[in-house]
Design brief:
Elements (H helix, E strand, L loop, with lengths): L2 H8 L4 H59 L7 H22 L2 H12 L1
Helix pairs in contact: 2-3
Amino acid sequence: MKISDLKGLMRGQTIADEAEELKNVALRYVKEETVDPVKALGRYTAFGCAGSFFVGLGGLLMLVGVLRMLAHGFHGTVSWIPYLIMSVLGVVVIGLTIKKIASGPSKRRIAKKKAVK
């Protein structure tokens, strides 16, 4: 230990103060690098879930509206036809959604990696 280091300790900067400052800096760093990105990810996920819910609800309401429109034109023994049409349309929409999800960005990234090699 040098004399200048001892003079620094004598001026009021104790080892305990240095340790406390080091602890504070480390805590700030950990919060900045872990907690803040997790909060941002949570906010992103929450808005994504809310958006998906409302898009799904809107699609369901549209299907019910079209069903009511079709049901108005069919009476008697053929009143089941609008329900069949809407069921098939609903399954097609769900199938297209699943296909779009399956061929999303991750599949494109895999194809790019294969093309680069």
